[in-house]
Amino acid sequence: MSRDAAGRVVGRRLAVEGALLAAGALSLLVLGYWLFATVSTFSAAVRWLVTAGVLTVAVAGYVWRHRRTLRAADGARTESIGLANAITLARAVLIAAVAGFVVVDARGALAWLPAIGYGTAVLLDGLDGAVARSVGTETRLGERLDMAVDTTGFVVAPAVAVAWELLPVWYLSLSAARYCYRGGLFLWRRAGGSVGTLPPSRLRRPLAAFQMGFLTVALLPPAPTPLIRAVAPAALLPSLALFARDWLAVTMSPSED
After folding, report:
1. pTM of structure
2. Is the distance from CB of 127 to CB of 87 less than 8 angstroms?
3. CA nearest 208: which of 247, 164, 242, 161?
4. Mind listing the pLDDT tens digit for each residue in 239-255?
């Protein structure tokens, strides 16, 4: 098979896989709208659908912008989106569905959905990377997408918890921490400061996993809200301290240039 023919085959395969993933995302949105329209109100259904739909479209746009990074770590062209990336995209759609609850106050069985949706995304978080490593399909797009989904989750889950008064409003500092970190480095460079390489940390992944678990518990309807709010400072401070430590590490170390 010629190179052009092989390229067309790969292109068709990626198009089919993309269409299947889009159909799955659309099905979830339709199901969510139907549930709200049936159990709650039409207004709540529309608000949920618009919010979740906008974030889902944003995910699709992100993937499209970075589609050329769908390559293996060594730069080799991949012939498929891959199971690992599909799992990461499923996580993204679940978090988009959870985002819809920022603008609706669900009752009864619907009140369980944010915890179930975000908790499922958390469980899948460890699976996509393991799948990519086990079948040798780690891609640059997968790395970018995994980080973007994690960051979005740390915005969406606290926002829902704060909107439902399950966590205090200052817990949104977790949502802002990464953006403040990146924005601060940008301003630091503009001011002429040097930025070194971020050193490895044994705490980064465990603290992220702890935050995901804590947020999932906080979103559970049976969780005692006074207790969750009481332990919130102890849950939040280590993560903020790690961001501060990372800032000092890269701004005080020799420049990577």
Report:
1. 0.86
2. yes
3. 242
4. 999 999 998 888 886 55
